[in-house]
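Consider the following input, taken from an annotated entry for D-glycerate dehydrogenase (Pseudolabrys taiwanensis).
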Amino acid sequence: KGKKPLVVVTRKLPDNVELRMRELFDARLNTDDKPLTQAELAEAVKSADVLVPTITDQIDASVLSKAGEQLKLIANFGNGVDNIDVATAVQRGITVTNTPGVLTEDTADMTMALILAVPRRLVEGSHVLTSEKDWAGWSPTWMMGHRIWGKRLGIIGMGRIGQAVARRARAFGLQIHYHNRRKVAPKIEEELDATYWESLDQMLARMDIVSVNCPHTPATYHLLSARRLKLLRPQAYVVNTARGEVVDENALARMLESGDLAGAGLDVFEHEPAVNPKLVKLARQGKVVLLPHMGSATLEGRIDMGEKVIINIRTFMDGHRPPDRVLPSML
Ligand code: 8YV
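Applying the prediction step yields:
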């Protein structure tokens, strides 16, 4: 049906996703994978029919104000849409979509990996063998961590990912607790044997491990504030594979430093790619495990995300509502 849409993709995607995009669209791909500057983004939206951004692109009101009439769809390559001013986009008549579902299990795997790695000192142990010093050998008190089994896990955000974490954690013998805007369906609660806490404060005071699995929205910014972090017991661990902004990173680092928290496993940071130097220091001491935002980074997952993006674009171009449309009211 006439001209192919001009689809501007801001970052390098897996080869077969790019190949498919080239077949289907007039695809402008970013072959050198350097993130676009705000000025380059503003330039791109002047002519693009569809923009495919990622978390490293700030699609804010200023970029959107430069958009040409032809820009009708922003198909985010990613689940979280906190990189996009969705309200302004929608006001301007631009549809926004994301890629839910396909990265749930991978992100839950990484969350579980951190839940295991921090209390059981996985990275610290590995360093013993790779550092210059020789291993002095086993002893009964060597590398004692803390038991996972039987501990209380508090999940903040019981959406798809939170539930997938709960399923895994149950298999490891953890007791599942959660805080969410609303209680999940009784069937799911029963299946996960999960206890709902309407009050986040009350839940935090009783947990051994807390896992952040909610999106970053104005309502969840610094949900784990300095005040709330202080409610955690000094033996508690914090794991975050969601968004750095949900946790007051400075307050968290201070508490880890002072021993008011036992440890943390962080895959996301408040000011990526910058990481609080205090956290890096604590990681060197083995108190925290830090990962560079790789929770959903599997080849299979990235291909699935690319396919989702393509389906959203094609459905939209065919004149239908794309399956993963995001509305401001959902945030
Ligand atoms: C990506 C993610 O790292 O989808 C998300 O919300 O955090 C990850 O899949 C990134 O956001 C892709 O844009």
